[in-house]
Amino acid sequence: MENKPDEGSADNLPANATEFIRQVVREMGYHRKARQEVEAELAAHFEDELSGCTETQEREHKTQRLIGEFGDAKLLAVLCRRGKKRCRPLWAKAMMRSLQAAGVLVVVLSLYTVWFVNGKPRVTVDYLALLNRMSRPETAREDNAWSHYEQVVALVVQPGHELQEMPAFRNPGDAKYRNFAKLPQEARHTIEKWIEANRRAWEHFIVASSKPYLAVPYQNHRDIVDRWLFHIRLPDLSAIDLLSRVGIWQCRINLEQGRTAEALESSLTVARVGAHWQRSGTPIEQLAGLRISRMGHNEVLQVVASVGLSLSELSDLQRKLASIYPDPYPLVDAEYERLVLLDMVQHVFTNGGPGGGHLVPPSSRGPVHTAMKESCPTAVKIPLLRAALSVVHARRAETVAKVEQVYDHYRELSFLSPYQRRTRAVVTVGEMVESLPKHRYALVRSSIPSLDRMIDIRFQGRALHQATLTILALQRYRQEKGSYPAGLEELKQAGYLDVLPADPYSDKPLSYKVAGGNFTLYSLGPDFHDDGGNAGLPTGLRKADREIGSPRGGPGQPKPWADKGDTVFWPPVHVP
């Protein structure tokens, strides 16, 4: 056996000495060569001490005395082993320490790996309840428009295939379809029939628009087990959009039949509904609200361009339109997106440990896999690489801090117009996210939407609202003064306008020019260049096509907020 001493090295000594030496060697538990050396050294020591003893009895007595002087065999073995270790060469000591360290490291890493892989996230915050509390103002429940919007969704009648394929219905903003009387008789009949089918839904739509606020009670989908904020059930915005189209077509029918007040009320209803959804809880709803609000404002301008409104009608219309946004024009609030990402963190990070917790290796499906498969496609496909991604990913506290940093930056930028962001050379949200290390912040990089575009859309919506109020004020001024003012500042000084309309793409108000008894009101547009009121054209559109085009966009028409050209609010497209 390994611990058995070498035979023959102490055979010439008394039996008790031989047994003692072999016991010491056995207790050493060291490598063979060292044991041999210790055995030889002890045997030599006994032989030297017994060299003068000739009698057997004398040798045994002296041997017993020497054993007593050595003391306990186990203790002597320990001392011998330590002595041998101290006498090892430096390279041997270094190698031994390295092997020991490597062994400890392997054990620690094995334990850490087991702990890391078996870590489980623990959900502690109900972000759905938090979102509902944030979205619900402290006012009477009967002031909430939600119950009527629910009725709209329940009662809406979808357009049939014939209506969906109709060019006028598909492109209501196109100039050649604005005049309802000019549409083919069959198209008119089909649209009127669809409007009548949605009569009850439209009544609830009107009541909903009159309510002071909208608070949507968000819920999870019933058929989804995982209660992620990512999975909440959003309202049927397509139904709201369809009823907005009902309002637009009703406005045009009323206008054709000479019912100007009803036509304006229909377009104002659409604008009010848009404002409701702009203040809703999620960016998807807010952007839908902006689109609906734009429909309502554009239709108001078409009515003003088509009918000579009286001074009282203009004044009343301006007051009603201004009341839609009594507070500052709403931001596109990304609070929901922030909560979604924080909720995702608590679902995929452990709670506690170094750095507040680590990323659990993402599964091959679910929201995290969906979010990461574009930025880290290989890492989320292979189990080993998923585990490696979790190791290199930032810990929970650092990830949460980065999420808060990104959304705080978005909040700051939300108050800056495109012109202000350009002149101050600020870092956009997209640039900030793109600068994050790819794998260390994989979750953050994969889950942040295009927030910068949301800021631009909000400022464009505000510009349209302010431009519409300014156009109404200019019409009032002309009726009372006999001509349009030389500059917009005169409107404010005369009390027709509280605030000059800001151009989001310059540091000045919207551009205003008077010529030939009419005026032009426009924004410089995203190219930040004054093109003299020439609207942006879609790619490939000839300049001569401007005369038949529409500043609202559409097939073969100038496009609002195009990369090139101005965005013109007045004069609107000519109604045939």
Task: Please summarize what this structure is.
It is built from 25 helices and five strands.
Structure description:
The protein is mainly alpha-helical and 576 residues long. The protein folds into four domains: 15-87, no CATH class; 134-307, no CATH class; 335-448, no CATH class; 461-570, no CATH class. The chain is built from 25 helices and five strands. The protein has helices at 15-28, 32-50, 56-70, 73-86, 90-117, 127-135, 146-155, 161-164, 167-170, 185-197, 199-210, 237-256, 260-278, 283-306, 311-323, 335-348, 367-372, 377-381, 383-392, 396-413, 418-423, 429-434, 442-447, 451-481, 488-493, and strands at 219-220, 232-233, 511-515, 518-523, 567-570. The strands form two sheets. The chain has a three-stranded antiparallel β-sheet, covered by helices on one side. Strands 1-2 form a two-stranded antiparallel sheet. Helix 1 runs antiparallel to helix 2 (32-50), helix 7 (146-155) packs antiparallel against helix 11 and helix 12 (237-256) packs antiparallel against helix 13.
